[in-house]
Specification:
This protein has 11 helices and 3 strands; from the N terminus they run ααααααααααβββα. It is mostly helical. A hairpin with a 2-residue loop joins β2 and β3.
């Protein structure tokens, strides 16, 4: 990595490293390391492991302060939405981290700099790098700057769609919902999955997304809305009683 690039990225991150090797390691994918013998100490996975925990703790603390009336279930759902890989990837995209990631030639040609999985992992690794270099307060500051608006403006459902649909089916003594892949389109770095959700005795419905998990959630959400269990905001529909 060129020095000017390092300085440019530090400016974007809002943090200047005392030991730049932490940042360099956070940006290094396994495909960029030629010797497997040295991969463990030179790639981002250990920093990512740490950053994931620092992120979760910081977001949990932010949620408690921002939503004093929320119960544990709502807090957990908000937390899950904010620490998921897709959200971390979105932060990395906003910070334009992709061009700085160190990749092997094959992964680079495959569009690795645009893959959500890699972007999300590198984002968490950078959090770990900041924590190791500057301590918890510096890591908290980075997370707050890049997650606060997302937290306050989060539009995700306050309940997990797949879990809600399964509970609804069980409450009617029906088998659990079944999910099956219909198709997969697009390049490896930007796939699009189409899945079908089926519940016994109910018309099947489709959902798509950039991963199987997201497509399943979208299909479950679509069924909940169609069946009048949720409104389009992901909120439970109150039943009218005569």
């Amino acid at each position: 990595m060129e020095k000017k690039n390092t300085k440019s990225l530090e400016k974007t991150l809002g943090y200047v490293f005392n030991d730049i090797s932490h940042l360099e390691r956070a940006l290094t994918h396994s495909s960029a390391v030629s010797s497997p013998k040295h991969q463990i100490v030179e790639i981002y996975q250990r920093h990512e492991f740490l950053g994931d925990r620092v992120l979760a703790l910081t977001i949990a603390d932010m949620l408690l302060e921002a939503f004093p009336k929320a119960d544990e279930g709502e807090l957990a759902r908000r937390l899950n939405g904010l620490v998921r890989n897709e959200t971390c990837a979105a932060v990395a995209q906003d910070l334009q981290i992709g061009p700085f990631i160190r990749l092997g030639e094959g992964e680079n040609q495959a569009g690795g700099r645009k893959k959500d999985a890699i972007l999300g992992d590198v984002c968490e690794a950078i959090i770990g790098a900041i924590f190791l270099d500057g301590g918890f307060v510096q890591a908290q500051d980075f997370i707050s700057r890049n997650w606060k608006e997302r937290m306050l403006n989060w539009k995700g459902p306050l309940r997990d769609a797949k879990t809600t649909l399964q509970e609804w089916a069980q409450g009617r003594k029906l088998p659990p919902p079944l999910y099956s892949q219909i198709s997969r389109k697009g390049p490896d770095h930007a796939p699009e999955f189409l899945l079908k959700c089926e519940v016994q005795g109910i018309e099947a419905i489709l959902g798509n997304g950039s991963s199987k998990r997201i497509a399943e959630q979208n299909a479950a959400r679509a069924m909940l809305i169609r069946e009048g269990i949720w409104n389009d905001k992901g909120e439970p529909v109150k039943k009218q009683h005569d």
